[in-house]
Amino acid sequence: MTTPRIEVDLSKIRQNARHLVDQLTPLGISVVGVTKGVCGHPDVARAMLDGGVAALGDARVTNVERMRAAGITAPVLLIRTPMLGQVDRIVRTCGTSLNADMDVVETLAHAACRAGRIHGIVVMVEMGDGREGMPPSAVSRFARRVMALPGVVLAGLGANFACLNRRAPDRVAMGAFLSLVPLVERACGVPLRVVSGGNSANLAGLRPGATRLNELRLGESILLGRNPLTGEPIAGLATDAFTLVAEVIESRTDAQRRGAGAMPEGLSRPDAGAASLLALGDQDTDTGGLSMPGLLTFLGSTSDHLLLRTPGQALAAGTEVRFGLNYSALMRAMSAPDIATVVRDAPATRRPLPGRGAQRDLEPT
């Protein structure tokens, strides 16, 4: 089979989505399944929808177009402020977008009028993350201006937490955000359909009780089953829906690496064991975000090589090594042109390829 490759277990993505939807529905919160981490892969999007997410969310219109071309008709939220040069494409493919710039909203409104559509605007509020959004004091005036434009409709309010500053949303910040909802509703004279309060980092702080929060945008928790701030597994979720497989292309024992003339004096590596070189590098993924399998340890990487220390016997050329990924490694690997994607609905039995002798599959720990 082709290497390097990403193996995707759709059943685990579906399972994670269903678990989170079942957990959040009693709290009155719907789930937007965020597909940007997989570049809008249609099969992953369908698995999220099969798991019960109410809509899909992505940051790039090219990803949305990929899903639409594959026949996905579910509602899509653009989770990054639209670029002016893409408004016609966004209006055509996304029903709603997150916004905090009036020039952009006005351009979206013109594009929607030209297309004979109505585009939803979720107004983003800056609540301490520092990435996007307007100050709370400006929200009501901004919302009234949106209401006055043809071609767009005020869909609701949104906030983002724990992306730029990596701080979990606390009760004070969430309370301040939610207190804006009735203020905007009174100022505009209409109820807000969407109160989109954040992402996977919000899950740990949710508590039962009356709240106006009714939407979360979840990507990492569905895809990887982990808390994006701590990297810890979330109870009840699968953490191994994605596996990156790379191939050994050169292996040397410790003695060979330190053989006479192999390296100038003083530069020999002190690492015990053997070294294995894999056809995978920084151009393919975030190598620092890979989980090393078994007793293998990371020695370093370059643009297209990954060097591992392998205690004891060297790995034969052709051996496939299997890695777990964090979110950064997953995003880069899914967007790398030289990494194939293999989709399956259940784990398959993995066997060594014929004729490779000592080849073996190595699983991430």
Comma- or semicolon-separated keywords:
alpha/beta; elongated; disordered C terminus; Elongation Factor Tu (Ef-tu), domain 3; 27% helix; eight-stranded parallel sheet; 22% strand; 2 domains; TIM Barrel
Task: Characterize the structure shown.
The chain has 10 helices and 16 strands. It is an alpha/beta fold. It has 2 domains: 10-224, TIM Barrel, CATH 3.20.20.10; 242-344, Elongation Factor Tu (Ef-tu), domain 3. Strand 7, helix 7 and strand 8 (194-196) form a beta-alpha-beta unit. Residues 263-268 and 347-365 have low confidence and may be disordered.
What's the β-strand tally?
16
Q: Mean pLDDT score, rounded?
A: 89
Shape: elongated
> Beta-strand level of the residues, as a percent range?
15-25%
Low-confidence runs: 263-268, 347-365
CATH class of the largest domain: Alpha Beta
Give me the secondary-structure category.
alpha/beta
**CATH homologous superfamily name of the largest domain?**
Alanine racemase
- Bin the helical content: 25-40%
Question: What is the CATH architecture descriptor of the largest domain?
Answer: Alpha-Beta Barrel
Radius of gyration: 24 Å
Continuous helix count:
10
- One letter per element, helices H and strands E, the order comes to EHEHEHEHEHEHEHEEHEHEEEEEHE
Kindly, what is the distance between the CA atoms of the first and last residues, rounded to a whole number of angstroms?
Answer: 22 Å
CATH topology of the largest domain: TIM Barrel
**What's the main sheet like?**
8 strands, mixed
Number of spatially distinct domains: 2
